[in-house]
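Practice problem: predict the structure.
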Amino acid sequence: MSVSATPSAIVIIPARGGSQGVPLKNLQRVDGVTLVGRAVQSALAAPSVELVVVSTDHDEIAAEARAHGARIVARPAEIAGHTASSESALLHVLDTVEAGDDSAPAHALPPVTVLLQATSPFIDPADLDTAVRRVASGERDVVIAVAETHDFQWRLDGEEASPVGHSTDFRPRRQDRAPHFRETGAFYVMRTDGFRERQVRFFGEIGLQPVASEWSIEIDEPRDLWLARELVAQPADVDLGRPHDAELHGIQALVTDFDGVHTDDHAYVSQDGTEQVRVSRGDGMGVALLRRTGVPMLILSTETNPVVAARAAKLKMDVLHGVDDKAGALRTWIEANGLDPAHVVYVGNDVNDLPAMSLVGWPVAVADARPEVREAARLVLSRPGGDGAVREICDRILAAHQSAVAAAGTAVSATAGRA
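Answer:
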């Protein structure tokens, strides 16, 4: 059976503002990116996905999802309460997309509909893409995400315990037992016409799409959020087979704070009040190498000391200093340079960097940043401020750029070879 490479799915992400277990759960961050942002990113990274829509009743969630590339459909109050089903949100979105609304014209519905839940922060686009293609090809009517498990399960009927799916008389070894599967809740892929007819997510022939069990967390309680953050905080030498590790490809600009990033956040003060700071010469080489790629770079600081401008001039970087509203200044600079915020890096170290970090797709923290900044960062550098942090981020952006150029060259060569 052939499987078309043409995008064939609409992904719908229900994301209410209310939450029973974790307040404003969909705006909580894992690895520096909100849960709703992660969900949109995963969906858009699957080649078979044509359109990603977030159904929400919350303005901030809508803004966050839109910033990551999703279309927004406002959810009516009658289907926005905690008792409303996900199916009701999906059906409302399908009707809205098909008919068109103030935000977008009518759009023909793709043959496959996906319910994707932002509470699953580690969705691998490859798994999602495979599941969509299985439904699009006609192999199954519905395909759901599951994780393999070999555990022995029990239930309690009152005070009496009884085994589920096994017997106490025979306890085979793990390798001798057929696996069973746990529904992860990450995604449900369905034929669009079948779902609209049945109005439930399970119908017809159902297939299972196994996903990595160690990453199949569903965030319902604060401890789930803690565990997700702990997983991504593991050191690089701990290989957990992390799905779809993001790389610094497509970066359009680098913006850095000054004190605590270019410096070690200390100052030498003479008896006449003159201040001096310590910087890394290696940072200068990193900036020079990255500048050759044409990536714009900006130092953005609240510090009024002329040393900021002097260092920026030395590095040939744009500079805005003595700025109280760093987020506003950054937004203006991004717009003036015609940049996509999703492809901008901002490196910070202290709490006054948080508003600016929230504006960009790549908030980055130096190794010795404040805990709040590290938590908000998508990437935490291995080097502290003033000791190679700027060189590290420049090298990483440059490496990603060179990798992309090499990949493009390989693709061109392969095309030429087939000509």
